């Protein structure tokens, strides 16, 4: 792997280390206990006096201390740095309001930015609740899970008022001194998820698009068409890129990124095949009943799963159903209660 690890200082207790030379890239492990992970990997690229920070971590006091100490040890003045957000979940954008000066350029994707703002209004959640009801979830659980979903959507990840927000998308470039980083669309985990690619070194700052520690969840949005096709297309796109190393946002850095991408594609296809199998065995089944039978890597007793995990499973499951109906593999129609009933297409 050729990893050049240098601890940046005892104050961070090993949470900051140099992982690449030319360009100089530091990884800062910002703590935050999430469903399946305990920290977010924030990356800092330096060239001379210029610096680019990729993501910020979650809005916790400990996380703020860790990242601010990293800035100090690395000699970074945040007001003179630039910041790039792979997506606007709070474990990636949650420290913007505390650590990113308003005058610092903040690069984000407009689709995710607009969704973050839309999710602050009641109409967004009315559409989300309606869809959960249509899949057969039930009113009480729909209200519970949608309250949890506010976190996953990224509501209030940061306040954009007065900030130097700059929208970037596929094909744009960011510069840090001598180094150019190209923006690559990796939508799927969120509709506007994006990554950074340094072509000369092959470093790919991949956010949550591909992870080794877990299979990334796919975020459902009522007005986005076939998120599964988008996600799989963006994973397959990586296979045609000259990537040397994935800089993931959660977990340790590992070799074998190509094999991991191929595994993720096969993993999702296997789960989609399972959705067809369950529907064939149970004609007229509801969406929630299909989703609960898709062999998730959780305890078999549905009641033993945390509400936050259930929300993530429901999102990903609905995306599978959307893809299968879009492809014409399964069909659906509403019963007299307004609940979708699924059948295998003839």
From TrEMBL:
Task: List, alphabetically, the SUPFAM superfamilies matched.
Answer: Metallo-hydrolase/oxidoreductase (SSF56281)
Write down the species.
Slackia piriformis YIT 12062
Please report the stretch or stretches of sequence annotated as the Metallo-beta-lactamase domain.
39-250
Q: What is this protein called?
A: Metallo-beta-lactamase domain-containing protein
Spell out the Pfam families in the cross-references.
Lactamase_B (PF00753)
């Amino acid at each position: 792997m050729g990893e050049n690890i240098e601890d940046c200082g005892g104050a961070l207790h090993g949470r900051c280390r140099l992982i690449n030379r030319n360009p100089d890239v530091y990884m800062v492990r910002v703590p935050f206990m999430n469903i399946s992970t305990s920290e977010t990997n924030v990356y800092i690229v330096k060239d001379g006096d210029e610096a680019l920070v990729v993501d910020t971590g979650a809005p916790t006091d400990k996380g703020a201390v860790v990242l601010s100490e990293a800035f100090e040890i690395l000699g970074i003045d945040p007001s003179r740095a630039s910041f790039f957000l792979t997506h606007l979940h709070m474990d990636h954008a949650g420290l913007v309001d505390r650590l990113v000066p308003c005058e610092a350029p903040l690069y984000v994707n407009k689709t995710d930015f607009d969704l973050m703002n839309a999710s602050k209004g009641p109409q967004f959640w009315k559409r989300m609740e309606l869809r959960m009801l249509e899949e057969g979830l039930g009113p009480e659980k729909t209200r519970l899970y949608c309250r949890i979903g506010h976190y996953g959507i990224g509501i209030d990840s940061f306040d954009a008022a007065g900030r130097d927000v700059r929208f970037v998308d596929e094909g744009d470039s960011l510069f840090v001194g001598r180094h150019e980083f190209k923006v690559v669309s990796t939508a799927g985990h969120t509709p506007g998820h994006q990554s950074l690619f340094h072509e000369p070194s092959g470093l790919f700052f991949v956010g949550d698009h591909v992870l080794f520690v877990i299979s990334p969840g796919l975020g459902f949005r009522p007005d986005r068409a076939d998120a599964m096709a988008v996600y799989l297309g963006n994973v397959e796109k990586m296979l045609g890129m000259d990537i040397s190393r994935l800089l993931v946002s959660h977990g340790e850095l590992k070799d074998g990124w190509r094999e991991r991408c191929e595994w993720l594609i096969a993993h999702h296809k296997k789960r989609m095949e399972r959705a067809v199998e369950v529907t064939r065995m149970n004609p007229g089944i509801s969406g929630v009943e299909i989703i609960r039978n898709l062999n998730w890597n959780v305890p078999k007793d549905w009641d033993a799963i945390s509400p936050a995990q259930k929300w993530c499973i429901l999102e990903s499951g609905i995306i599978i159903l959307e893809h299968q109906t879009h492809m014409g593999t399964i069909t659906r129609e509403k019963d007299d209660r307004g609940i979708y009933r699924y059948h295998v297409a003839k």
